[in-house]
Design a protein that fits this description.
The chain has 174 residues and is mainly beta. It has no helices and 20 strands. The termini are far apart.
Length: 174
C-alpha cells in the first residue's frame, strides 16, 4: 500500500483510538498507516488533538485478523504542525512491535523541512516524534524546527527499546 498526501490542510481534527486494535492507547492519527508507505508533503496540521499519534501513526503490528504484515514508512516533507495537543503517544508515533514475527518489523520515519510549533500535552508519555514497540524503529529528522512546546513528558524525540534516532540541522527550542 502506498499513499501520498500533498498540499492539504487539516484543522481542528480530534482523533480517537484504533478500531483494529481495540486498546485505549492504540495508534490512530489524522493520518494512519498500517504496513504501508505514506508520503506527506506541503501539508498543514493546525489545532489537531489526539491520544496516540495525533498527526500520523504508523504500525507494523499484527492484527487479530492476521492480514499480511510488513514495515511501515513515513516520509514527511515541508509541513507545518502547529497548535496541537497530545494526550498519550506523540504527534508522530510509530509502533514496530514484532510480536513473534521473523524477521521482526521495523518502521522508518523521515521528517524533513518541517516545523512543530506550540504543541501541548497534559499527560503524554512521549513527545513530538515517538517510537515504541518490541523491535527497532528508525526516526530521522533533518532541517526541522521544534518550538513553543509545553509537553509533560518525552519532549522532542522519544525512543523505546531498540530504536535509532538521527537528527541533523535541526533546532529544538522548548
Amino acid at each position: 500500500l502506498k499513499a501520498v498526501v500533498k498540499n492539504s490542510t487539516f484543522t481542528n481534527i480530534k482523533t480517537g483510538t484504533s478500531l483494529t486494535d481495540g486498546s485505549d492507547d492504540a495508534p490512530c492519527g489524522v493520518l494512519s498507516c498500517v504496513h504501508g508507505d505514506l508520503t506527506v508533503e506541503g501539508c498543514t496540521f493546525d489545532g489537531c488533538e489526539g491520544k496516540s499519534g495525533t498527526i500520523v501513526s504508523l504500525s507494523s503490528r499484527p492484527t487479530r485478523w492476521g492480514y499480511k504484515r510488513g514495515n511501515a514508512y513515513l516520509k514527511m516533507n515541508d509541513c507545518m504542525i502547529k497548535n496541537t495537543s497530545i494526550s498519550r503517544l506523540g504527534l508522530i508515533y510509530t509502533d514496530s512491535n514484532g510480536w513473534g514475527d521473523s524477521p521482526a518489523r521495523r518502521n522508518v520515519v523521515f521528517v524533513n523541512n518541517t516545523t512543530f510549533a506550540n504543541t501541548t500535552s497534559s499527560t503524554g508519555d512521549y513527545g513530538i516524534v515517538a517510537h515504541s514497540g518490541a523491535t527497532s524503529g528508525i526516526i530521522m529528522m533533518n532541517n526541522c524546527t521544534v518550538y513553543g512546546d509545553n509537553i509533560n513528558a518525552g519532549n522532542g524525540v522519544s525512543i523505546n527499546n531498540n530504536g535509532f534516532v538521527f537528527v541533523s540541522n535541526s533546532t529544538f527550542v522548548t
